[in-house]
Automatic annotation (TrEMBL):
Keywords: Oxidoreductase. The keyword Oxidoreductase applies. GO terms for molecular function: glyoxylate reductase (NADPH) activity; hydroxypyruvate reductase [NAD(P)H] activity; NAD binding. This is D-glycerate dehydrogenase. It comes from the Bacteria. PANTHER family: 2-HYDROXYACID DEHYDROGENASE-RELATED (PTHR10996), GLYOXYLATE_HYDROXYPYRUVATE REDUCTASE B (PTHR10996:SF283). Residues 110-287 form the D-isomer specific 2-hydroxyacid dehydrogenase NAD-binding domain. It comes from Staphylococcus kloosii. Residues 4-318 form the D-isomer specific 2-hydroxyacid dehydrogenase catalytic domain. Belongs to the D-isomer specific 2-hydroxyacid dehydrogenase family.
Amino acid sequence: MGKIIVTRKVPDKFIEQLEAIDTVELWDDAYTPMPRDKFLKALSEATACFITLSEQIDEEALNAAPNLKIIANMAVGFDNIDVQLAHDHNIVVTNTPDVLTETTAELGVSLTLSVARRIVEAERYVQEGKWQSWSPYLLAGKDLYRAKVGIFGMGDIGKAVARRLKGFEANIMYHNRSRHSDAEEELGALYVSFDTLLKNSDFIICTAPLTEETKDKFDKQAFEKMKKEAIFINIGRGAVVDEEALIHALNEGQIWACGLDVLREEPINMANPLLKMKNAVIVPHIGSASIVTRDRMIQLCVDNIKLVLAGHEPLTPVRG
Ligand code: 8YV
């Protein structure tokens, strides 16, 4: 007998399933992460852990976990885990692909439209009692209709965004480490170099995971190459963007606006200058946050834990 750690409060219906197989140590708080020292201590007896992006699985954590068999990450991204090292320790790592694809794409398009049509600014304008008259260009924004949209990262989420953009008759181009003939044939997406994507897009939507290759990809030079009218959206990972370069680009009018679901520092530091910018819309990493999808993500983690503890292959392993 070991222990299953669950690092955030999730509904009882999920915990009960885990309690049916072993003792569960639940961090009974939905909003604050389990403190690191408590997590490390819990790992010493754990056979399985259900974690979120708030937990870092590094050498220290792995060394603290002699009996651990599975790390079930409640996210499709796994940049919080040293996967290679976990595999060296014979620990299975799982993530939650597929179940969140459509929901995350919906957030991507929502954020894009919110920035393009200045929805947040408009709502504040009304709330602040500034709506005194109609005016020809009052809060006028940009059309997504027939715009040139560059998608950086054409994985499942990138493709799901592209499918939705077809409804806007957008001209889609993409850049990815490998080409995707399905996106090219079915969605008419044009594969372009990163430079061409930067120079030609009216909207750039980043859905890329954080890897050695994508880290700081949107740097000073990248923002300089974008159109002055460009809108930059990030639903991938914060560290794909050099935030200082983004702030500079917005301040200097090198790009028109941005929408971010992910930041380098999460939760955002309230001193972050982006918070004061009218043309920056920031939401708190809610890409996959629909109730149904969050239920599915949690259930997938539970299923993976059940399978691995019973000696079977998990449904969604992260391969090294
Ligand atoms: C989540 C995510 O919103 O799956 C991911 O990689 O970034 C998001 O789906 C969330 O961080 C869940 O832990």
